[in-house]
Specification:
Number of strands: 10
Shape: globular
Oligomer: single chain
Strand order of the largest sheet: 1-10-9-2-3-7-4-8
Low-confidence stretches: none
Distance between the termini: 33 Å
Bound molecules: S-adenosylmethionine
Structural class: alpha/beta
Strand content: 15-25%
CATH class: Alpha Beta
CATH topology: Rossmann fold
Number of domains: 1
């Protein structure tokens, strides 16, 4: 089955630099098929090399961003949003205030710990959130899955494409539009491209925006090279 997504969407197949609240306000309502995003966890994160994440120490953006995410998502579709477990109350408030209904919770098991204190912290987590009454997938994914280490080369909290691609396959069709309003290094957008979906990414930080844009260009190059080598096969026979 092919998608019904309009080819006229103003932010189709682009990463936009800016505040996602402002950018989503320019998007038509009900224009996105699936949202897959990893917002700041509200933990004031700093990695060993000193890299930080904008808006990770204040939650002013949370409610307005979730309101816009809900508005641009089509009726009877879902969003998957990672969140910081220490701030689950703030995230939950914002999702419910926007209109989202939680319909699932995903745990991503890591082989390494991001931190060790009372526990050795070895998982990431995300909520599956519905707008309206989305249809059930034919073969539902397990809600616990492995998350390989991304290497964090492009971004301090980079998510691996291998963990994102199955989510995109389960909750959207080829050709549909996947939005990531907190795109970071563009992992969700790369996963959308690699699974034959359209994408729209938004990133506030100019450094991560450039990483994401260059990464998407590399992914496009790899896809084009693969296509042309496949096209060459008949002529080589
Ligand atoms: C947890 S990171 C996402 C990392 C991403 N999943 C990846 O694999 O690279 C969250 C990102 O949201 C960005 N951000 C924070 N506030 C934002 C806003 N209001 N609009 C757009 N991006 C924002 C941060 O700069 C950061 O790169």
């Amino acid at each position: 089955m092919q998608a019904q997504t309009s080819t006229q969407h103003p932010f189709l197949n682009t990463i936009t630099q800016g505040n996602c609240i402002d950018v989503m306000r320019q998007m038509p309502a009900n224009s996105v098929d699936f949202i897959l995003t990893d917002p700041p966890y509200l933990v004031n994160y700093r990695d060993r090399s000193g890299r930080t994440i904008q808006n990770d120490a204040n939650a002013d953006w949370l409610k307005p961003a979730m309101r816009e995410a809900y508005r641009v998502l089509k009726q009877d579709r879902v969003a998957i949003m990672f969140y910081g477990w220490t701030k689950v109350d703030a995230f939950f408030d914002a999702w419910k205030a926007a209109g989202f209904q939680p319909v699932g919770h995903l745990v991503f098991r890591k082989t390494y710990s991001s931190k060790s204190r009372f526990l050795s912290y070895q998982h990431e987590q995300a909520y599956l959130l519905a707008k309206g009454r989305p249809p059930l997938p034919k073969q539902p994914l397990a809600d616990v899955m492995d998350m390989p280490y991304s290497g964090n080369k492009l971004h301090p909290t980079q998510k691996p494409v291998a963990a994102l691609a199955p989510l995109i396959r389960s909750f959207s069709l080829p050709g549909e539009l996947v939005l990531d309003p907190f795109a970071g290094s563009g992992s969700s957008c790369a996963a959308a491209l690699l699974t034959g979906r359209r994408y729209s990414g938004i990133e506030l930080d100019s450094e991560y925006f450039h990483e994401a844009s260059e990464r998407i260009a590399r992914v496009r190059g790899r896809i084009a090279a693969k296509r042309s080598s496949q096209e060459l096969i008949p002529t080589l026979r």
